[in-house]
Amino acid sequence: MLAKRVIPCLDVKDGKVVKGINFVNIQDVGDPVECAIEYNRQGADEIVFLDITATHERRGTMADVVFRTAENVFIPLTVGGGIRTPNDFRELLNAGADKVSVNSAAVYDANIISEAAYRFGSQCVVVAIDARCVGVEEDAENARYGKSKYHVYTEGGRKDSGLDMVEWAKKAESLGAGEILLTSMDTDGTKKGFDLEMLRAVCEVVRIPVIASGGGGDLSSFVEVFKETDVDAALAASVFHYGEYIVEDVKHVMKEAGIPVRI
Question: For 124, which DSSP code?
């Protein structure tokens, strides 16, 4: 069995790492390059950079931050935010990113997924999905994924696209996405645990790796998400940024629970 991954996420705004709760109440945390170097030292399997206002502000992602990080960090680096064309993929890959995450642009024009996969390989293409529960299925007995219904949100969680989360995940895979980064807007920043129902809904219908995001809390929440769903990785921000524990703590608890992990 492949080792499960633990991934710190660095949300970046105006050149600083920030964190909020439910996508609002944003606070500065620190310098993105310095944070990435520290997480590399702690044993993170990967690092994710998300420029959280790039799409909303209609500007590109911070290639200079990516370049400086890649010079100092030697684990896989995924970068997203403001990605609009396959050329944006090229710019970030050339700057040192290993994978590029696309969110809003793919919702508006799904061809960017297939074009990027064709030009750079599916292994470089991460489709990020920000989703929120919008109600309950009318016919729960025949529902394919439990009782809750989820919509995909764009523009950093500002707009409800109306897209069904499960159908969008399936489409992204069919177009060539190599991985899905699935964030629960309902649990984001709350540290109350990952949204297991939402994660199971997507894991049940795709074959590509799924990264769980939103709600990482105490150490047991990481064990729970790997025991109760088929996700390949767990991403967290608040608990790492505020020093509640380090990546090594998470991995040791996972190992003790019998979850395959690289120590």
Answer: G
Q: How many domains does the chain have?
A: 1
Note if 11 is an active site residue.
yes
Our answer to whether residue 164 is catalytic in this structure is no
- pLDDT top residue among 191 and 251: 251
Q: What CATH number does residue 161 fall under?
A: 3.20.20.70
- Asked if the model's pLDDT at residue 27 lies above 60, the reply is no
- Expressed as residue numbers, the domain containing 216 is 5-256
Residue of 45, 51, 88, 130 marked active site: 130
Q: How far apart are CA 95 and CA 97, in angstroms?
A: 6
DSSP element (H, E) containing 200: helix 196-203
pLDDT at 175: 98
pLDDT over threshold 80, residue 201: yes
Two tokens, residue 174: 């069919």
Tell me, what's the pLDDT at 192? 92
